[in-house]
Amino acid sequence: MECITKEQIRDFAREIGIDLVGFAKPDCLKEDQERLKEREALGLSCSIEERDVLKRISPEFILPEVKSIITIAVSYNVDYDIRHSNRSYGIISRSSWGIDYHKVLKEKMEKLSEFIKSKCQEVKTVCLVDNNPLLEREIAYHAGIGWFGKNGLIINDEYGSYIFLGEILINKYFEPDAPQKTKCGDCNLCIKACPTNAIAEPYIIDTNKCLSYITVKKGKIEEKIAKKMGRRIYGCDTCQQVCPFNKRAKKVVRPEFVPDKLLPRHDLIEILNMSKKEFAEIFGPTSSSWRGKSIIIRNAIIACVNTKEKSCIEPIKNLLKSQSPLLRGYSAWALSHLCEKEILSEIEDALLKEKDEMAKKMMIEALNKLKGDKIENNKG
Ligand code: SF4
Ligand code: SF4
Q1: In a domain, 182, yes or no
Q2: pLDDT grade, residue 378 (50/70/90)?
């Protein structure tokens, strides 16, 4: 007699607000090894992805006794009316509305683990959500949570792709669930809608072009990609918004994922002027804060340029004196796009004081653009 059944786990999971549970074999990822090597060789992986292929496919590196992987999915498809404002705004991905999902999912998984441990002796578990190198979507696929869409996301028939995924590695065997075949058919809406052509071919995402990754990338963003960011401050939902399976996906009542201080369309000027304390209050509770304030403000500066927002000029001028060299460089870049020659002297003054090489280069490029001639990198 088993100490616990898959159905008992599913029933308890539903009670604590977990929408889907699936079971996979720990070696389910071994078949992905070759595909990962190919991706790496084609240069489709980005800097935030784990480069060690073995770490990505080996749950036993985390729990040596692992016998099954329990995958959970929690929908964040809350019913929320986005209020449009007349002021200039930046867009926050739906995945970052409300409380940081890492925290929410971790709590639910810990409860589920405790429930299993209360029924079965000598059970060991490790709860994971996004903070590990394992191929999360592939595990969810093998656990039958959903099927792969051409946009590279896991799509569930009932909840669409607006689902957060988490895994519990466990030293107890459960019969694996069956993977599901793709249902995209002839649809190519996500490929057509992607602003950067990051869906290199169906199911293959070039993460170096994908704005979900670009918006959290450190440092300078290639200008032609920055232009495609539009108003995006954190993440990108475009390939999910157009997906027919999301249009008919079930809505959920989940107050933790309803936006609070950080709005889905957040005022750009408020972001540009944010102090450290304000950043902690507005962005801190959400999942968009992990890369820090400078990355969010950099994206807001880019959004101001992309929307030609003149009301952003004053706050951007203040950022020429920011403590962050990235923001000093970006403010010069933005001013060269939003202003005429009247701004020259302010950028020249900033350049005289600048010590950081990247910021200096961006200031010189900004001056060149405004003057229409070349100056040498010999100031300061
Ligand atoms: S998240 Fe945005 S940039 Fe990335 S593939 Fe989807 S539409 Fe393209
Ligand atoms: S938009 Fe169409 S092609 Fe893309 S994932 Fe959805 S169903 Fe598949």
Answers
A1: yes
A2: very low
Return all residues near 65 (Cβ < 8 A) that are at least 6 apart: 124, 171
Between the CA of 346 and the centroid of ligand 1 the distance, in Å, is 37
**CA 65/CA 71 separation, integer angstroms:** 17
**In the chain, % of residues over pLDDT 90:** 84
106 CA distance to ligand 1 centroid (A)?
26
Task: Identify whether 313 is part of a domain.
Answer: no
Collapsing DSSP to helix, strand or coil, 73 comes out as: strand
* Structure token digits, residue 100: 């940081």
Structural domains counted in the chain: 1
219 CB neighbour count, 10 Å cutoff: 10
Euclidean distance between CA atoms 338 and 12, whole angstroms: 56
CA of 317 to the centre of ligand 1 (A): 31
Interior/surface letters 18-36, b for 16+ CB within 10 angstroms, e for the rest: bbbbbbbbbebbeebeeeb
Its domain, for residue 188, covers: 1-265
356 lies in some domain: no
- Tell me the backbone φ, ψ of residue 265, rounded to 5 degrees: -120, 90
Please answer whether residues 149 and 184 qualify as being in contact, where contact means their C-beta atoms are separated by less than 8 angstroms: yes
Instruction: State residue 333's pLDDT score.
Output: 98
43 lies in some domain: yes
Grouping H, G, I as helix, E, B as strand and the rest as coil, residue 358 is helix
| Beta carbon of 151 within 6 Å of any ligand 1 atom | yes
Catalytic residues: 130
Check if 113 has its Cβ closer than 6 Å to any atom of ligand 1: no
